[in-house]
From TrEMBL:
<dbReference type="Pfam" id="PF00294">
    <property type="entry name" value="PfkB"/>
</dbReference>
<dbReference type="InterPro" id="IPR029056">
    <property type="entry name" value="Ribokinase-like"/>
</dbReference>
<dbReference type="InterPro" id="IPR011877">
    <property type="entry name" value="Ribokinase"/>
</dbReference>
<keyword id="KW-0460">Magnesium</keyword>
<keyword id="KW-0547">Nucleotide-binding</keyword>
<dbReference type="GO" id="GO:0046872">
    <property type="term" value="F:metal ion binding"/>
</dbReference>
<keyword id="KW-0630">Potassium</keyword>
<keyword id="KW-0418">Kinase</keyword>
<keyword id="KW-0479">Metal-binding</keyword>
<protein>
    <submittedName>
        <fullName>Ribokinase</fullName>
    </submittedName>
</protein>
<keyword id="KW-0067">ATP-binding</keyword>
<keyword id="KW-0119">Carbohydrate metabolism</keyword>
<dbReference type="InterPro" id="IPR011611">
    <property type="entry name" value="PfkB_dom"/>
</dbReference>
<dbReference type="InterPro" id="IPR002139">
    <property type="entry name" value="Ribo/fructo_kinase"/>
</dbReference>
<dbReference type="GO" id="GO:0004747">
    <property type="term" value="F:ribokinase activity"/>
</dbReference>
<keyword id="KW-0808">Transferase</keyword>
<feature type="domain" description="Carbohydrate kinase PfkB">
    <location>
        <begin position="5"/>
        <end position="277"/>
    </location>
</feature>
Length: 288
């Protein structure tokens, strides 16, 4: 079982001809909204990869539909709390060139309490995985509790925050980060990733695949060929698939291979949580 302490956002997309200047009021020519947030994306990816996942998070009342959507996708939702704070949301303004600006309100995502997290993890079993990113509060308490209970602790260090990593690093068993985050981390610590003492570190490298760093050394995995149309959510999909594989006992190599395949399909699609491929789509695409 994967316990995902993660953000749930409402992504609101506004299409505009140009970005408004200071003081300008501009009518958008299109609007759409969807489920987003790294946490929600990863929960959906885990469920699509056929592993059990329970999301630990918080939303406001107007965001009830996000919990319903996660449930529809096969995510367990009893630990998604409805509180008196607006659901996290991102106002994403996209101009005619596809350039975007984003205003993010973290809202309920950063109002988790220790009792919410503790109640969820009290249902976990040794060997389960706690997954965390950097878009909620509560990572220190969660990782500490999880470690005491014998869970494996997985951390996607995004959005990157050197202080957060420094506080958590002793309790992380599996870390997933992209190339930029890996460089930021090495710069912040002044040491190579291997020196952090984390058992398994996986760095995603976009079109170049990924590398896995462990006490066995460093191993490179090539990406599968793709014609990318939208890379949003590829990293979250990769991480969800990787951890689902590990939770299902598939081992690191097989899990990485599945994650690469899922990432490949994801970059060929527009959208995020709502279009994360399931195992059957992966089997069909790769002729498995
Ligand atoms: N151009 C590409 N061709 C094939 N696969 C890709 C491509 N870009 C990304 N991927 C797949 O997606 C995975 C994650 O991509 P990347 O390293 O860009 O993560 P990220 O920066 O976290 O992504 P995101 O844009 O979602 O934040 C890669 O490891 C790979 O499997």
């Amino acid at each position: 079982m994967i316990w995902n302490l993660g953000s749930i956002n409402i992504d609101k997309f506004y299409g505009v001809t140009h970005h408004p200047a200071g003081g300008e009021t501009l009518a958008a020519h299109s609007f759409s909204e969807g489920l987003g947030g790294k946490g929600a994306n990863m929960s959906v990816a885990v469920a699509r990869a056929a592993a059990p996942v329970s999301h630990i998070g918080a939303i406001g009342r107007e965001g009830r539909w996000t919990r319903d959507r996660l449930l529809e996708y096969g995510v367990d939702t009893p630990h998604i709390h409805e509180i008196d704070v607006p659901t996290g949301h991102a106002n994403i303004v996209v101009d005619a060139e596809g350039e975007n600006t984003i205003v993010l309100f973290q809202g309920a995502n950063v109002r988790l309490t220790e009792s919410m997290i503790g109640a969820a993890l009290s249902e976990a079993s040794a060997g389960d995985i706690l997954l965390m990113q950097n878009e909620t509060n509560g990572q220190e308490y969660a990782s500490h509790t999880a470690q005491k209970l014998g869970l494996r602790v997985a951390y996607a260090a995004a959005p990157f925050d050197a202080d957060a990593v420094a506080r958590l690093v002793d309790r992380i068993d599996i870390m997933v980060l992209n190339a930029i985050e890996a460089a930021q981390l090495e710069e912040a610590t002044g040491a190579p990733l291997l020196a952090l003492g984390i058992r398994d570190v996986v760095v995603t490298l976009g079109a170049d695949g990924c590398k896995w760093i462990s006490d066995q050394g460093e191993r490179a995995f090539e990406a599968y060929p793709a014609q990318p149309v939208d890379t949003t959510g590829a990293g979250d999909t990769f991480t969800g698939y990787l951890l689902a594989g590990l939770d299902r006992g598939l081992g690191m190599e097989v899990s990485i291979d599945l994650a690469l395949k899922a990432g490949t399909l994801m970059v060929m699609r527009h959208g995020t949580a709502d279009v994360i491929p399931d195992l059957k789509e992966i089997q069909d695409h790769f002729g498995l």
